[in-house]
Write a structure and sequence with these properties.
Blueprint: H1 2-10, H2 12-52
């Protein structure tokens, strides 16, 4: 049992999968944040255009 646990801890393939999952989560968070900021900016531009039009 101890040998199996040590083999699992030394295995780098599983660690790589976790690293990709964490990196993917961070990228997704960055994309969501960027789109939210873009939405606020676009909303402000549309509001300004509406104020200018009669």
């Amino acid at each position: 049992m101890k040998g199996a646990i040590l083999k699992f801890l030394r295995e780098e393939e599983g660690l790589t999968t976790v690293e990709y999952a964490v990196a993917g989560g961070l990228i997704a968070l960055a994309v969501v944040t960027a789109f939210q900021a873009l939405g606020v900016t676009v909303g402000g531009v549309i509001t300004s255009i509406e104020a200018i039009l009669p």
